[in-house]
Sequence to fold (269 residues):
Amino acid sequence: MADDAVTDLDPARYLRAPVLDVPGAIALGIALLSSTDGSLSGAPHASAKRLRARVLELQARWAEQRAVASTPKTDPRPADQRLDRAWAAVGRRLETLSELPETVPEAKLAATLYERLFPEGLTFLAMAFEKQWAESEQRLKQIGDGPTAKQLTTLVGDFLLAELRTAHTEYGRVLGITAAKAEKATPPSLVEALRGVTQAIAAYSLQLVAAAHADPEIVPAVRRALRPLDDIRSAQSRRAAAGESPSVPDDTIAPPPSKVGPTTPVPDV
Fold:
């Protein structure tokens, strides 16, 4: 009779874990760890601890992947608008001064500088980000730190010229032109961590079956411990026969995969 109690606990049935996605693997791992009553010791207990470690590792990689995916990208528009305003202020100031009577010395100088810096007006401010930066860079090189810079400072003020240079530098930094862009973090792959969980599930299952064959007295406890895995296998077989998705139904284990996340508590063993 003792041998009959384990006849349906075929090790071949547990050589591989069912095909699972990340939430499904975590959910099954949690369900298996929750189904043991603590009476199992030795190899099954050690294998359960390894399963818990693999589930926690998968959760950590999943959390890291989510964090990378949610990292906001630098928006160049604020820096672009700041530079636009600075150049527009310089252009308007020079244009206004150039309209003064010719008897005003600054009027002729303003007209000369405007023609030199803005031969096509301020249309370059509507160009694509990188091209606009290049046009801005070319004009700032014309201004330099010599006589032209002094003349421009006299006409528009040193504060405006300082703002123009600062805005240009910031624009180049944001675009990754004057300073290397921070490398975009690559979301970690979950393939290896997921494989680790499925392998740990298979190893744990086999240890339970081996323990049951060695000691038929613990067969009831082993059956309870394997119940989540058996339920999933049965559900997936039914779905496959019906031509449906083999994914794990929400009502086969607790917690359901749809409720599992990187921070779902994992039972200790």
